[in-house]
Write a structure and sequence with these properties.
alpha/beta, 9-stranded mixed sheet, 6 helices, 23% strand
Length: 207
């Protein structure tokens, strides 16, 4: 079985809306589109590119798909060549026309269709697609979560973890990487069970 990876860029206060540019998503009056650009550096670039090793499918929400489809078919470079040749699966409540090569619309039962994808692909990556990601979190329908956390606070905007997230255990699967401009890479695997609880006063008594 393959793996479903969720890859997200987020601020320290959890905002993941429109990291790439001012016109990416100005919903609800969001005024900080492109907040990631000043904090991009060579370490982020290297780690983002290496994180795509083995990727053999893209799984995208409709908004992110539209942004990608308008840009990547006309771009050059390794990422453009990778994205353009991969199969693209799109989650949408509507019936959009998908003109980017090898794009496929998921059926009305999106969760069931997503569950079948790891039978066809080894490494399926969800990039951005913040609204769609909430469904994946709610269904625990992912295997890996990669977060780039940037040292800024925006105070408002769409969050990585919005309403509907279910209690979930994660396991850090490699050492944290920090970039020169302060971005921190964290890679997690979905773990069994739900978060446990305890009583910290027991630690005080032992001390």
């Amino acid at each position: 079985m393959g793996l479903i990876h969720i890859d997200l860029f987020t601020t320290l206060d959890g905002v993941a809306q429109a990291p790439g540019g001012p016109d990416e998503d100005a919903g609800d009056g969001f005024a900080f589109g492109g907040w990631q650009a000043p904090l991009w550096d060579e370490v982020v670039d290297e780690q983002v590119n290496s994180g795509m090793a083995g990727m053999d499918a893209l799984l995208l929400g409709r908004r992110t798909y539209d942004i990608f489809a308008a840009y990547w078919p006309h771009a050059d470079g390794d990422i453009a060549r990778l994205f353009n040749r991969l199969p693209k699966y799109v989650a949408s409540r509507q019936m959009p026309t998908l003109e980017w090569a090898d794009s496929r619309l998921l059926g009305p039962d999106i969760v069931a269709d997503v569950r079948e994808l790891p039978e066809r692909h080894a490494n399926i990556h969800v990039i951005g697609s913040l609204d769609f990601v909430q469904t994946l979190f709610a269904e625990r329908l992912f295997d890996r979560l990669t977060l780039w956390v940037y040292p800024i606070l925006l105070g408002g905007g769409k969050k990585v973890f919005a309403d509907g997230v279910v209690p979930t255990n994660l396991r850090l699967i490699e050492p944290v990487v920090a970039s020169p401009k302060g971005a921190v890479l964290q890679r997690y695997a979905l773990a069994d069970g739900t978060p446990g609880v305890g009583d910290m006063s027991a630690n005080d008594q032992e001390g």
